[in-house]
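#struct-pred
JK: can someone run the complex with adenosine-5'-diphosphate? inputs below
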Amino acid sequence: MEQTIIKGLPVGICIVNSKGEVRCLNDRWFSYLEFDGEQETLIGQKILEIFWIPRQIKIGVQKLLNQKKGSFVFSEIQLDELYIKAKGIYIDNSVIITLDDISVTKKVQFESLKKILRAQEMERRKIAKELHDGIGPLLSASILQLDTFMLETKNENLLSVKEILEDVSTEIRNISHNLLPATLMDFGLVKAIELLVEKLNNKAKCSFNFYAKGHFLELEKQTSLNIYRIIQELINNVVRHSEARNCFVQLIEHEETILLTVEDDGIGINDFSTLSNNKRKGIGFRNLRSRVQILEGTIHIDTAENKGLLTTIEIPLPYNFDET
Ligand SMILES: Nc1ncnc2c1ncn2[C@@H]1O[C@H](COP(=O)(O)OP(=O)(O)O)[C@@H](O)[C@H]1O
Ligand SMILES: [Mg+2]
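RT: done, structure tokens with the ligand placed:
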């Protein structure tokens, strides 16, 4: 009876009794989890012992079986190409688990994310250009005029004004360079990061070391820009938050992947998991994850209080992200 009801449902479904034994499941459940054995063989088996059931689902089911009430939702479980939403609920001495295919929604989200980041880069480029080409020359002209004025009147009183204007001019060049890393486009990723690190070593308390291995020649423009932004954010975090004395940045090209690590020996983060739930904080980390996602890479962050922070990112090759 149950089996007949769940057969044609548009979601993957599995019902487990209070001992955790599978009572029934439908075809969709199988196709989502890519199990190609006989359905019947699973009836009566303990769900927690079935190896191909995703770990999160098992943890959720275990919790419901222990509590004998409640529910769980995992809004995103990745199974190869497929993105699944899993829900579980304890009713009438049973756990009902449903699986929804959300791959299409994910794909739409991913595409719009790509567009947003691209638009953001374009906007940055525009602002950088205006600062550099518009305000930069005006400032230089003012400084020149001040110089002439001071020379003609033999008046040194305005020297401090000139110094401020020079600082403003340097600051604007720095801002526009951060917005549009010209070195990245002209000399490539490694040189651009070398310069970034060099500039910081001149003014930050922390000592930055950068090690690169590989040519990174085949990188698409958009890919190197994404990697550069990722490193920029991680390094900025070290400067702003870590209180570290040393920071190591490594960019290594393997045959099939690029491995990027940024490690500092600073104060670390006490409870990293609560940070990801804090929407106001963590915007940097969120953007970082989006960029890694666009590069189809993986990111792992390892940190504890006073144990520094290590970010490991792996990006698969080949790169083909410049297509629109
Ligand atoms: N390297 C680090 N060492 C210690 N704390 C860090 C480090 N990086 C980030 N954090 C902490 O994580 C928080 C979130 O970082 P992030 O998402 O980049 O946002 P933001 O930099 O805008 O604060 C920071 O506010 C800081 O408290
Ligand atoms: Mg940040």
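RT: quick notes.
The chain has a mean pLDDT of 88.
The domain at 181-324 is CATH 3.30.565.10 (Heat Shock Protein 90).
JK: thanks, will look after standup
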